[in-house]
Amino acid sequence: MTTELESTRRALRDAIAEAERAAELARLLDAAQAKLAEAERATEELRSMNERLAEAESELETERTAAERLRKELAEQRYQAEVAQWKLSSLKVARWNRIGDAIKTGKSNPVRLAKGLKGAAKPVKRPVAPKRKPIAVTAQKDDRPGAAFQATSTTRTVEGRSVRLKPFRIPTGPNTRPHLTAAVIADPHAEALLRYEWRQTTGFTPRDFARVLAAEVPHLLVVESVTQGPWAEEITGEPGEGVRELLAWCAARGIRTVFWHTGGTVADYAATAELFEYRFTTDLTAGWPRLPFAVQPRVHNPLPLSGGRYDRVLTLEQLLPAHLGYPDVLTSYRWPVAVDCPPGTPHWRLAELAACGTSIGPEADSRRAHAALRRAYAAGTMTERVDELLETIGLPSARATLDISVILPVPDSSRLEHALAQVVKQSGVTQVIVFGHPSIEERAREVLAPREVVFREQDPSVSTGAMLNRGLDLCEADLVAIMDPRDVYGSHYLADLRRAFLFSTADIVGKASYYAHLRGAHATLLKQPESEYTYTPEVNGATLLARRNALRAIGFADLTEGWDEVLMRQCRTDGIKVFSADRFGYVRVRDEDRWLLGAAHLVEYGSAEPHALI
């Protein structure tokens, strides 16, 4: 009887424990579903706001078009009235009309008639016919900083069909080197490449440079081999008086002078270039130091147009008609799904297209496009080119770095080798904060060398959030990454994430769109593919890469489960921008995950790595 009673008690305890686990699972499922609904509501609200903004801007553009049409119609009516007035005046001074008037007024007075006929016989200057005056373009007042270099063209024509698109919003900053001022004479393309590298002064002419530059005396003068504008004739052939006076003004103030040959025959600019202290060229055959074009992350990046991509493959000629200014070129770069470029397309043009995330070739291919984007940045950015220029001419190139400290918790020592392998293959990592059992410290230091390793024993009684706060206090690099020892990270994972800080204004970057693999079902899933390259309410905590100071200001909640969700909620409360990068380079690995099954798309039954890793 006692044995049966004890067995019954044990069964009851097991049933109660099972019920408690089931209740906890149900609670967690409800909480996850509530959070998913909250995220979906926030995403829908953001999408609705974007749609309303697009509609408002479209209506404003329609009103402007209608106003411009009315202005043209009014100008035409004024012209027609002037023509009618001219015709009337011409009739009045015509000889036959004046003779008729003389006969009419002098028919009863022979003397008056004779005088009238004599006057009518004299030649009279006819009035000048009116000419159509060009309709003055009334510039719409735009108070946005940098509005002068924004895109203006909102339509493109493809095979006779007019297509409207939302122009790419060109950022006004930030500047990479705010301590440095440069006076720059350049065509729009080069000006756009250099604009974000320093405080840039442009628009001065041979007549007013002394007045304009005196307002903020620059540290250096950069003159491109321009083909248009007031300086073109000054620097081509024999140097003009204006450029000589400009260089003398700079010499008197110790301002370094740089000539940058980017096009045309070197001989056409050789005489002027000799007057400068330093000379650079994009031409491989010239004997000067090379300074080739490179992508400018502020404008050559995969940030999408608000209307999405045009679902067509275009030729380069269709994409870039001759009339487009460079701000509109930047819009066109990110407009189609792919561009078929002919042989001989300049390398810099291909790099700029690739940096905007556009497939190059006869068909769209997101994996090839991502690899090409990575190569375009790896070949060098304009920031790196300016570093080289400043080093050559002897000016400091102090700027913020994007070095990374990684926080790596390893609660399960059996995962150590896998976890270390994920960190070792990353670039840009200068420090790793490892939490784990003391037995793994020596191996961690051995594998992660020569990176600085800070090891701390993991206390099982301390929550994950508290442990991350301890790790954050030990971080020294500008950026902090958190990596999960269960997951798979590609060799370009951190380099791809870090790139987003070059063109976004976010303090936290991660992945809201990513691949996942569930071992139990052997299923590969893709979560939120529409969230690539967007500002988003939240990202996966295991993909977090953040500015250290911003992360310290928020801190981590003292939780083991859901610490990342609380962090994202705090970001939304504090107005801290969170940016979701591409979907590649990371795989979330779990045995099972019911929430993920309901929130992601099934890709296939098989490994996720062929899809995620490039």
Automatic annotation (TrEMBL):
Coiled coil: 2-87
Protein name per UniProt: Glycosyltransferase
Annotated source species: Nonomuraea recticatena
InterPro entries cross-referenced by the UniProt entry: Nucleotide-diphossugar_trans
The entry's keywords: Coiled coil
